Amino acid sequence: MIEFRHLRYFVAVAEELNFSRAAERLHMSQSPLSRQIRELEEMLGFPLFARDRHHVELTAAGQVYLDKAREILTAMEQARREAEQFHAGLKGSLSIGFVGSLTYRLASLLRAFRLRFPEVHIELRQMKSMEQMQALYDGKIDVGLVRGAIANPNLVCEAIAEEPLVAALPGSHPLGHQSTVSLDDLAPHPFILTPYRSGSGYYEIVTRCCKEAGFVPRVAVEAPEILTIVAFVAANMGVALIPESFTHLRADGVTYLPLQSNCTWNISIIANAHGPKQILVEHFLAHAREDVQSERAFK
Length: 299
Known about the structure:
Pfam families: HTH_1, LysR_substrate. By secondary structure, the chain is α/β, with parallel strands linked by helices.
C-alpha cells in the first residue's frame, strides 16, 4: 500500500534529482531512501526515474506523478493546518444563548472577541435562562449568558461581573436635575416593570432592591422587556431601574441617574462541563474575564 511517506520521499528525490542530496534533506541515509523509491515503483508497476550511476531524471510518468504527488502533499498539509486551528479553538463556530437584558454587554464583548478570533463564526440566540439550560442539554447552544447564578451539577456556571442598576426617569421628572438618586426618592413614584410571571430575573432583582430599601414598588405599567420599559419611561408613564449598559440607548425624553445604593445584577456564563467545543468555550470565558478586568481598570 502506498503511504504518505512514499510521496514525501518521491518528491524529495524528484526535486533534487540526486539521491544523496534528497536523503540529506529527509534526514535519512541514502540506502533506505533508494529502497523506498524502488518499493513505490514496484507498487505502481512502472518506473518513475531513469537513472544510472551518475544521472537521475524523471520519466514521463514520473513527471505526471510528481505533479499529483505535490497536490496531495499540499492538500494534506492544508488539512493538517486547518484541523490544528479547529483543535486550538482558532476556527469553528460558537452558538451563544443570552438573556435580552445582556444585549448591550454581549455586543461589546463580542466586538472584542471577533477581533481576537476572526475565524470563529458566532450564532446568537436570545432566550430565557431556563431555556438556555435546556438548549445546553440538547446541544443547541455551546455557551449561555444569564443573570444571577444557575445551580446545576451538570453545568459550569461562573459569575464574571456585577452590573449596577441605574434609575431611568422621564425627562421632565422633578428628580431629573439631581446627579444621583436614592431608592427612597423613587418610592412614591409609579414603576414600570416586567410581569411577575414573565420568568425574567429582572422583576426579582428590582423588587428585591426596593424591598431592601423598605418599600414595595407601585407598578403602573407592565412591559415585556427592558427596551419597552425605556420607551414607556420616555412616554412619562413611570420610572424604572435598568442595567447600566442600557444607558447606551439614548432615548429622547429619558434621564439616567446613578443610584446612591449598591444595587447590582450579576452576569454569569453557563456551559456544559465537557462539551464538544470545550476549547472554544474556554477561549470565550477567558476573553469575558479579561474584558471585565479591562473595564474595571479603565474605570
